Amino acid sequence: MKRLVVLVLGGGRGTRLYPLTKYRSKPAVPIAGEYRLIDVPLSNCLNSGLNRIYVLTQFNSVSLHRHIRNTYNFDQFSKGFVEILAAQQTNDHSNWYQGTADAVRQNLRYVEEPGIEYVLILSGDQLYRMDYRDMIATHERSGADVTIAAVPVHSYQASGLGIMRLDDNGRVIGFLEKPQTEEELNHVRVSPEWIDAHGISSRGRDCLASMGIYLFNRDTLVQVLEKTNYQDFGREIFPASIRTRHVQVHLFDGYWEDIGTIRSFFEANLGLATAESPFELLLPNAPIFTHPRFLPPTRVDGAAIRNSLVADGCVIEAGATIENSVIGLRSLIGRDAVIRNSIIMGNDFYEKPDAEDWESSAGSPDLGIGPAAHIENAIIDKNCRIGQKVRIVPGNRQASEETCYGMIRDGVFVAPKGTVLPDGWTL
Question: Which residues pair with 176 in a beta bridge?
């Protein structure tokens, strides 16, 4: 493990997750009430024995930097680190990162340090649990230059993914981004029997989708980046490597979700709240790490809560009903409020009437969800003030223009961080 360094790509603008990315980068978006997206790949690394990690950042990165700095600290004997590599001007580079490959190219000096043989490249916005030691074993056993993780999918799911074609030994010999026609699918289909023979039940799945997780021999990565001006791994580096290098596939059959849109973020969160969640949070041998906040227990006073996750430090008053929802840290839910199929991200602080800043919020609803509010199919970002008897039910509306109160995206109403909805406001 000491011969491997990890690069986590966390610099994208996250435009499809807007307005959750209005004030933060995509990897800093909260998930499951307690965590941030960046905690998932970093926890996978630590649970796999990998603790030499660089996070490449660029856009709206202040909260991401703060979270990493406050969370991932190692003792002096382990020699582990999670370091931030923010976009910066140097003597060699004076531009912003132009893509995932360019971000790595601008930081090659950290990869070229002595003793490094392998480089693992991860995305900062996916939800999955993987032991990367299995992938390293596949890479070494096959003698590959590059190994890519792949998950079996059905043909009808392939149109939104990058699909690989293999030979009988698992070497990647073709790649097609988002195949749309039956002819294109026939070109990249994999025999379900081949998948079954490699220890994974195909269950009718006949395509292998790239997970965007790459393991490079260090020298291979340096050569590819120095000899080309390719800017993106998925669209350029990986397809080009197939033609000139030994690229091996590593099969993965667990839960994997690319959190790229409001809809995928919304459904992934609500899925975590179900009793049959496809992603298990309660695994003592593979926990998801995050910033310890030392909050008090949540207090529930006569509320009805079903099929939901409730984080630390919340106060849920009498008569409230919460169903199929995620309630984040320090959430304050008023009397008789109704929350269904929604994500309440909570608050960064508690508000006290005697605090110096109390006057600044005079005339506004209190922090949190007001009494008798009714919220369905919504994402309420942090530090919002939702007034009494506010009603949010977007119905069948798929999209709306952004206003000071929020917007509808993918059929979900999103209130950005710090939004104030006055008493009686209705959607």
Answer: 163
